Amino acid sequence: MSAVQTAARPSRLSLALRDSATMVRRNLLHARRYPSLTLNLLLTPVMLLLLFVYVFGDVMSAGLGGGGRSAYVAYLVPGLLLMTIGSTAIGTAVSVSMDMTEGIVARFRTMAIHRGSVLVGHVVGSVLKAVLSVVVVGAVAVAIGFRSTDATALEWLAALGLLVLFATALTWIAVGMGLGAPNAEAASNNATPLILLPLLSSAFVPVEGMPGWFQPVAEYQPFSPAIETLRGLLLGSEIGHNGWLAVGWCVALTVLGWFWSTASFARDPK
Q: pLDDT tens for residues 199-238?
């Protein structure tokens, strides 16, 4: 092979990036053509936001020391934003399972494409959808009265970084759940904890207001430190050690999900 032909050949990295970009585009087009799954999952945090603000808001704010409904909106929104990411991750698990069971992945395996691009397409596309969903829920929160308290541009940037990092972590876990499920229904069931854990966290009430035996369950899980960190960045409350815990959980879940997903995807189908 001549030097000109060798130079003209694209590198493995450029091929991997090209194939990954194609898979991301496929993932986003799939979501646009079949929006019902994304919309159904997005409705859960929106409905919970409206329910807790307009039905339970006054009562819940009294338990937080007063301040009215607006004070409870401010307390509630950070948790609902992270719950939105968990809801979106359920859609990721279902989408991955559908690809595995409907034969498209088997077809991809026979094509001259970078193998990892299939997973990268799901992860990057799902993180983008999660961020867009957070923006939608955030817009609803602003419309009903949520306001950030003296958050600087750096704190807003840190909040966005935390949301993206958390979305990446849950997405890799969801991909592993989808790869390990025999069908889409099982994948949805497997990923249910991603939307149940926020209900058992500090999203709706402070941990110290829970029964003593239940407080460790709420405190030592991924959502609570992330919620408290986001709450501190947006509302100026004390973050303490929660920031390091949130980042640690995100890194640990990302690494776990990546190993789980890549190992499952590398196995030859039975």
A: 889 888 888 888 888 888 888 899 999 999 999 999 988 8
Q: How many CB atoms lie within 10 A of CB 141?
A: 23
Give 28-31's long-range contacts (Cβ < 8 A, gap of 24+): 28/125, 28/128, 28/129, 30/95, 31/125, 31/129
Q: Residue 251 is which amino acid?
A: V
Token pair of 113, please? 């494409």
pTM metric for this prediction:
0.88
Compute the distance between CA of residue 43 and CA of residue 52 in angstroms, rounded to an integer: 14
Distance between CA atoms of residues 68 and 64, nearest Å:
9
CA nearest 53: which of 145, 148, 147, 149? 145
Domain boundaries, the chain: 38-265
CA 180 to chain centre: 19
